[in-house]
Amino acid sequence: MTIVTNLGFPRIGARRELKRALESYWHGESDAAQLQATAAELRVRHWKLQREAGVDLPPSNDFSLYDHVLDTAFLFDAIPERYRTLAVCAPLAAYFAMARGLQRPGIDLHALEMTKWFDTNYHYLVPELQAGQRFALRGDKPLAEYREAKALGIETRPVLLGPVSFLRLSKTTDGSDPLDLLGTLLPVYAQLLEALKAEGARWVQLDEPVLVQDLDDAARAAFRQAYARLADGPHPDILLATYFGALDDNLALAASLPVQGLHVDLVRAPEQLDAVLRALPAGRVLSLGLVDGRNIWRNPLDNALILARYARGHRGDDPLWLAPSCSLLHCPVDLALEKKLDAELRGWLAFSRQKLEELRLLADALDGRAGAEAALAPAREAADARRRSSRVHNAAVKARMAALTAADTARATPHARRLPLQTAALRLPAFPTTTIGSFPQTREVREARARNKSGRLSDADYDAFLAVQTEQCVRVQEQIGLDVLVHGEFERNDMVEYFGEQLDGFAFTGNGWVQSYGSRCVKPPVIYGDASRPAPMTVRWSRYAQSLTQRPMKGMLTGPVTMLQWSFVRDDQERAQTCRQIALALRDEVTDLEAAGIAAIQIDEPALREGLPLRNAQRQRYLEWAVEAFRIAASGVADATQIHTHMCYAQFNDIIDSVAALDADVISIETSRSRMELLDAFARFDYPNQVGPGVYDIHSPRVPDRTEMVELLRRASEVLPAEKLWVNPDCGLKTRAWPETRAALEAMVDAAQVLRAELSAA
């Protein structure tokens, strides 16, 4: 019998129950016991849902209160020294301090650095290690959650981040190689596996996604060392899970490791199946990732069944498992909650529960169960209907794409000649100050939006409310002394959703939430057809805000690559083509903003680095079309109009030439958590344009003072010339409260003034 399994389930709950429980706890409105009770309720609900959907072996320990990489660091006592005292007396407080920072009387803790999980929009906390690091088991989370499921009569497979991937995803504070710590880490992994075995676990899943990346000899040796050590002792059977790409030149290594099963991603890399079948030793479990764990389209089940039958024909009696391509963390929970989607579009979609049901259908068809193959017909019919649908294709968009020329992808003159015109137009001092765009989205703002959406607040009254909020935001920025202002974005629900709602070819769900980090959830648009802009999207509020002040007002847009990356993207044409369509729509918005008198326009691209393919050989082509898309959006303006972009939580070393090729006049980046380390790439490259290194970590509730920001700006001035530097927070301020926002921005402006005085005195 074919086994249906799953690599991981969404944690947040179908209605974001975890988000609400976390934020209630952080605000002091509930206690730890209530938070943990909600977490336990979600785990039970999700195990039962998976079993109802037909999963034979669901995972456990895939649940997290914040992030699974942080969980791994905490589990193995990889807790930096600054959190140690707190961890002894208040472990949960220390856990959240590592994630978010903590500022109380007598306590001021910075959060761990945060970055993207491979090429997804999920953010993980980067473990901080050092030479001589010691590891030990702290708590029993994997064991406890395995016992919870077992008490329900559900056998699960505990999930752990594998030891090599854990170390490769970590950073050291002293420049040493994290892999040097493997010998110290492995005994603790072995101790945990032995405890799981004693608890009765039959299988354990060790996630090693770095196996789909380019590995050097040291990393390959680390894999051999790690799994030889883990096999040398009592342990459950090990499923080695790889995903997000093909094993390729790491296949022989993966197949040689002493594990009992191997999971491969056949959605991202179906072409690897033949090689996997040849390489995997007889008797091993082969887990086939056949439905897409990262998108929401119904899967082509006929194609998946062909792959499964092909594998069964080659594997004979060896066990075969069917699974999603990766954890379903990146998908919403249940399509059944979508009551307002039109029937045609809804028929094209599958959320997490539906994907598991698809796997059950595939397994039944593979095993020859009566009626199973006939049950695949609706998927076939839905795919045919989608291909034929007139709403997917727009002849005008295709004609405009065909007319693109090289002149549409470049500014008329280089930055060095544009800069004097922009400086004169904007009248900026040294170390100019600005923000990234959004200001606090208070409960009042969110409630007004909800009341307007439900019809309880008229459009006229809602507009009047937004006008008041915008004017107040402008006045606060003037009082603080910021040089380039923003309108605050009170009309916007999300930086992608807001634009997608106004573009043709986009659709929206009601409950299609996925986790970005911690309690931060997003509801990605669904790009189902050719993208175009029927009308201006941001001009009205930007023009109104500019009318309120003599200071320059910055227009705020989300860039084409980020619109693409943070959406559920159509899979019937190349992503590059979809990205160019979005870029053309944004180009119209940029030129309309310029015509409305907006002299600085920010086109955010935080997802540029995120979209980078995991293999070096595939990266150049992606970077070429990603840069081209940005330039299509940005290049229709005059030289005096200043184009900004923003990127956050990304490493730039290996793409700095492409970042420069964007030719944005100013780029703002996240640097406060890394203490300006990320600027080194810009200095080594001799980045030609201007840079705004973030001096205020907005993802933490702590408020940095002027001294801290001055120190960061001095560090920045040591690696980049003062005339290239702007001063700004790390990211938008929508998640923060007004008191902390104002205090932090006042300190930021004061810090800029200190640097200006030092520059004048030099």
Automatic annotation (TrEMBL):
<feature type="binding site">
    <location>
        <position position="604"/>
    </location>
    <ligand>
        <name>L-homocysteine</name>
    </ligand>
</feature>
<keyword id="KW-0808">Transferase</keyword>
<comment type="similarity">
    <text>Belongs to the vitamin-B12 independent methionine synthase family.</text>
</comment>
<comment type="function">
    <text>Catalyzes the transfer of a methyl group from 5-methyltetrahydrofolate to homocysteine resulting in methionine formation.</text>
</comment>
<dbReference type="GO" id="GO:0071265">
    <property type="term" value="P:L-methionine biosynthetic process"/>
</dbReference>
<feature type="domain" description="Cobalamin-independent methionine synthase MetE N-terminal">
    <location>
        <begin position="5"/>
        <end position="305"/>
    </location>
</feature>
<feature type="binding site">
    <location>
        <position position="646"/>
    </location>
    <ligand>
        <name>Zn(2+)</name>
    </ligand>
</feature>
<dbReference type="GO" id="GO:0008270">
    <property type="term" value="F:zinc ion binding"/>
</dbReference>
<dbReference type="GO" id="GO:0003871">
    <property type="term" value="F:5-methyltetrahydropteroyltriglutamate-homocysteine S-methyltransferase activity"/>
</dbReference>
<feature type="binding site">
    <location>
        <position position="731"/>
    </location>
    <ligand>
        <name>Zn(2+)</name>
    </ligand>
</feature>
<dbReference type="Pfam" id="PF08267">
    <property type="entry name" value="Meth_synt_1"/>
</dbReference>
<feature type="binding site">
    <location>
        <position position="121"/>
    </location>
    <ligand>
        <name>5-methyltetrahydropteroyltri-L-glutamate</name>
    </ligand>
</feature>
<feature type="domain" description="Cobalamin-independent methionine synthase MetE C-terminal/archaeal">
    <location>
        <begin position="431"/>
        <end position="753"/>
    </location>
</feature>
<dbReference type="Pfam" id="PF01717">
    <property type="entry name" value="Meth_synt_2"/>
</dbReference>
<feature type="binding site">
    <location>
        <position position="604"/>
    </location>
    <ligand>
        <name>L-methionine</name>
    </ligand>
</feature>
<feature type="binding site">
    <location>
        <position position="489"/>
    </location>
    <ligand>
        <name>L-homocysteine</name>
    </ligand>
</feature>
<feature type="binding site">
    <location>
        <position position="670"/>
    </location>
    <ligand>
        <name>Zn(2+)</name>
    </ligand>
</feature>
<feature type="binding site">
    <location>
        <position position="116"/>
    </location>
    <ligand>
        <name>5-methyltetrahydropteroyltri-L-glutamate</name>
    </ligand>
</feature>
<feature type="binding site">
    <location>
        <position position="670"/>
    </location>
    <ligand>
        <name>Zn(2+) 1</name>
    </ligand>
</feature>
<feature type="binding site">
    <location>
        <position position="648"/>
    </location>
    <ligand>
        <name>Zn(2+) 1</name>
    </ligand>
</feature>
<keyword id="KW-0862">Zinc</keyword>
<dbReference type="InterPro" id="IPR038071">
    <property type="entry name" value="UROD/MetE-like_sf"/>
</dbReference>
<comment type="pathway">
    <text>Amino-acid biosynthesis; L-methionine biosynthesis via de novo pathway; L-methionine from L-homocysteine (MetE route): step 1/1.</text>
</comment>
<keyword id="KW-0479">Metal-binding</keyword>
<feature type="binding site">
    <location>
        <begin position="520"/>
        <end position="521"/>
    </location>
    <ligand>
        <name>5-methyltetrahydropteroyltri-L-glutamate</name>
    </ligand>
</feature>
<feature type="binding site">
    <location>
        <begin position="16"/>
        <end position="19"/>
    </location>
    <ligand>
        <name>5-methyltetrahydropteroyltri-L-glutamate</name>
    </ligand>
</feature>
<feature type="binding site">
    <location>
        <begin position="436"/>
        <end position="438"/>
    </location>
    <ligand>
        <name>L-methionine</name>
    </ligand>
</feature>
<keyword id="KW-0677">Repeat</keyword>
<feature type="binding site">
    <location>
        <position position="19"/>
    </location>
    <ligand>
        <name>5-methyltetrahydropteroyltri-L-glutamate</name>
    </ligand>
</feature>
<feature type="binding site">
    <location>
        <position position="566"/>
    </location>
    <ligand>
        <name>5-methyltetrahydropteroyltri-L-glutamate</name>
    </ligand>
</feature>
<keyword id="KW-0486">Methionine biosynthesis</keyword>
<feature type="binding site">
    <location>
        <position position="646"/>
    </location>
    <ligand>
        <name>Zn(2+) 1</name>
    </ligand>
</feature>
<dbReference type="GO" id="GO:0032259">
    <property type="term" value="P:methylation"/>
</dbReference>
<keyword id="KW-0028">Amino-acid biosynthesis</keyword>
<dbReference type="InterPro" id="IPR006276">
    <property type="entry name" value="Cobalamin-indep_Met_synthase"/>
</dbReference>
<feature type="binding site">
    <location>
        <position position="731"/>
    </location>
    <ligand>
        <name>Zn(2+) 1</name>
    </ligand>
</feature>
<protein>
    <recommendedName>
        <fullName>5-methyltetrahydropteroyltriglutamate--homocysteine methyltransferase</fullName>
        <ecNumber>2.1.1.14</ecNumber>
    </recommendedName>
</protein>
<feature type="binding site">
    <location>
        <position position="489"/>
    </location>
    <ligand>
        <name>L-methionine</name>
    </ligand>
</feature>
<keyword id="KW-0489">Methyltransferase</keyword>
<feature type="binding site">
    <location>
        <position position="610"/>
    </location>
    <ligand>
        <name>5-methyltetrahydropteroyltri-L-glutamate</name>
    </ligand>
</feature>
<feature type="binding site">
    <location>
        <begin position="436"/>
        <end position="438"/>
    </location>
    <ligand>
        <name>L-homocysteine</name>
    </ligand>
</feature>
<dbReference type="InterPro" id="IPR002629">
    <property type="entry name" value="Met_Synth_C/arc"/>
</dbReference>
